[in-house]
Amino acid sequence: MSKEVGIEFDEAKxxxxxxxxxxxxxxxxxxxxxxxxxxxxxxxxxFGVPGGHVWHFIDAISRIGIKTIxxxxxxxxxxxxxxxxxxxxxxxxxxxxxxxGAGNAFSAVQQAWLSNSPIIYLAGGxxxxxxxxxxxxxxxxxxxxxxxxTKWSPRVIYPWQVKQFLTRGFKxxxxxxxxxxxxxxxxxxxxxxxxxxxxxxxxxFFPANMDYxxxxxxxxxxxxxxxxxxxxxxxxxxxxxxxxxxxxALIGDFAAWDKAGKELEELFTLMKIPFTSxxxxxxxxxxxxxxxxxxxxxxxxxxxxxxxxxxKVGFFDGFGAKWPETLQIASAQEHVWTYLDTxxxxxxxxxxxxxxxxxxxxxxxxxAKVSPARQEWLERVQKSQGEAITVRKDRAYKYGPDHPRYKxxxxxxxxYMSQIIREVNEExxxxxxxxxxxxxxxxxxVMPYLHFTRPASCLTxxxxxxxxxxxxxxxxxxxxDLENGSRVPQLALLGDSGMMNAGWDISVAVDYKLPIVYLxxxxxxxxxxxxxxxYGPNWDVLGPQDRYGAEWMGVKMQGQERPREGIDFTQFAxxxxxxxxxxxxxxxxxxxxxxxxxxxEKDGPVIMDCIMDRHLCNQAITSPAYALMYVHIPYxxxxxxxxAARRKMLTQWLPGLENEPEAPEWxxxxxxxxxEMGYAPTEEWMK
Length: 687
Ligand SMILES: Cc1ncc(C[n+]2csc(CCOP(=O)(O)OP(=O)(O)O)c2C)c(N)n1
Ligand SMILES: [Mg+2]
What we know:
Blueprint: H1 11-15, H2 30-40, E1 45-48, H3 55-63, E2 67-70, H4 74-88, E3 92-96, H5 100-114, E4 119-125, H6 142-145, E5 155-156, H7 162-174, E6 181-186, H8 188-191, H9 194-199, H10 231-243, E7 247-251, H11 253-257, H12 261-270, E8 275-277, E9 305-309, E10 326-330, E11 342-347, H13 350-363, H14 372-398, H15 404-407, H16 414-429, E12 434-437, H17 440-446, E13 458-459, H18 469-483, E14 490-495, H19 496-502, H20 506-511, E15 516-522, H21 530-535, E16 551-552, E17 555-556, H22 569-576, E18 579-583, H23 586-603, E19 606-611, H24 624-629, H25 640-650
Parallel strand pairs: 1-2, 1-3, 3-4, 4-6, 5-6, 7-8, 7-9, 9-10, 10-11, 12-13, 12-14, 14-15, 15-19, 18-19
Antiparallel strand pairs: 16-17
Bound molecules: thiamine diphosphate and magnesium ion.
The site of magnesium ion has 6 residues, from helix 19.
C-alpha cells in the first residue's frame, strides 16, 4: 500500500566515488526523514526562516522538491502557513531555528491555536547535554513553551522517532479540534547516525522506524480523519468486510466504554466474522457467542483483514508489526494508530459507528454477498476454538491431583488451578465472576482459561502492569456491583508480592464485608523463578553480600526468595479480621474455591493462601523482552535458559552469540529444577 517517497539522492553513483557515501557526509541524515514524511503527506510548500540548527532539514525539504519560502521574520512565516492552510484546508508546514526562531514564532502559533489552524511547526533545538547550563548557543525549550499553544509538542531525541512522530503530528493537527502541533527537532538528531546509534540502543531488536508505516492509510493518508464515521467511509468499510476472505475482529477497552456490545454482536453474526477480545473488551460480546475465539487462531498469518474495535494496539501486540490490513474503529484520534496498514478508519462513538455499519449492510443486503468461503473460514476458527478448549483442559488435568509431583498435596500447579477456576466460575456463577489479573506468573497461565460473559469482567492494570492493583480494583468492583444489587463475588488473583505490596487495604473490604476472594498464588517472592534463567542457583549474579547463603551483619541471606511458609497470609488475614484458608493441594482446590466463594458472599473477604510450585515460572522469561532486559548480565554467568534466550533473541545484535550452543526447547508447564544448573537445594523450603 505504501508509495515510494524516497529523497532524490543518487546512491548508486555516490557509491562509485573514491570515498563512499556516508564517509564524506552524514547520510542518511535526519533531514531526509523529515523531508520524506512531508512528501508523503503531500506537502508542496513550507514557510520559514533558516538557521544553523535547522539547515539540515530545510535543505532536505528543498532537495525532495518542496518549495521553501523564506521570510524575514518567523512570525510572518507562521501567519503565512495559517493563511495557506485556511485557503487550501491542508495542514501547513512552518519552520524556524532554535531560541530566537522559535521565540519569534510563538505569537503566530498562539494565533493558529486560537483559530484552530492545523500548522505543523518544526523547531530547532539545542543539544541535550547542555540543558540548564545557559552557556550554549541559543538554548531554548520550544517543546515546553509550545505546549501551551499546540495540541502536541514533543522534543524529539532519536532519529528513528522522526517519521513516526511527524506522521502522528499530521494526524493530530488535522483531526478536529484542529490545532497546531510543534516538534522540537534538536541538533543532536543530526549528529546521531541512525544505524550506528541504534546498534547500541535497541540494537536491531526493533527495526528502525518500526512504529511508522509509509502511507499508512493508502490513498487516504492525507485526508483528515472526520470525527464522525462518514457515510462514504461506512460504505467503504462495509465493502471491505464483504471483500475480505479471512477477517478476524478484536474488541478492546474502548468498545466497552462506548457500550458497543449489541451492535458488534450483530455485525459479527451478520457478516460471519470471528472475533476475540482483550482486557476491558472481554465479555463486551459474550464469549459464549459461537464466533468467539480465545486470542488469535494458530493459523493467524492467513488472516487478511483485522477489524479492530476500540483496541489499544501497543507493546503487547508488537505495535501491530505482523498485522495485515486493518479496519480501525476508534472513539478518538489518539487511538487511531498510524503504524497500522489501514484500509479504513471509522472515528467516533464506537456504538454509533458500528450501528451505522450494520444499518448500511442490512439496507444493501451485503450479508448475502459474503462469499461461501467465509462460512468455511468461520467454521475453521470455531473448530480451532473447540479444540483449543479441549487441549487446554487435557493439559491442565495432566498436572492435576494424579500427577506424581502434586500427589503429595503440598503444592499446586498454576495450569491446573486455572482450569478449575474456569470450571467453578461456570458451574456456580454462569461465568459472571469478575476477575482481577494481578499475580504475574499466574497471569501467564490463567488468561486463556478465563471465560467471560459480561462486560467489565476482566480487570487488569492495563499497560501500567503494576502489582498490587487487584486489592483496590476488587474493592471498587464489588462496591459497583453491590450498587447494582449483585453479590456475585469478585476474584482477585494476586501474587505473594502483590499481597505484600498492597494487602493491608483488604481491611477496607473487611469493614464493608465485601464479597471478594483474594486468591494469592504464593511462590515465595517476586517471580523467584527468575533464578533459573538469569541469576543462577544461588542468585550468583548478585553481589556476594546478597547471594544465597551469604552472611551479612550476622544474618543469613536467601537471594531474592522467601520461604512460602515464612509469610503466612492466613495469619495476616486474621490480623485484619478477614476470613482465610491455606490451600496446598490440587485435589481439594475445587472445593476450596467453592467454599471461599460462599464464605465471601456471606461474610465478606476471604484470603486463599495458595502454595504454588515455585519451580514453575512464566514462559515470558525466555521471551525477547526478558532477553533484552537482562542483556547486562555477562553471558558466562547466566544459567542455560538465559543463555538460550539471549542466543535466540539477540544474535542479530550481538553476532558472537551464533557460536554459542543452543539449549533444548523449554516447556513452561514443566517445573524447572536446580538439576540442570548442577545444584541441589540445601534448604527444605527450596526443594
Ligand atoms: C508496583 C510494582 N513494582 C514492581 C513491578 C515489577 N514486577 C512485575 S511482576 C513482578 C513480580 C511479582 O511478584 P508476585 O506478585 O509475587 O507474582 P509472581 O510472579 O511471583 O507470582 C515485579 C517485581 C511491578 N510490576 N509493579
Ligand atoms: Mg511471587
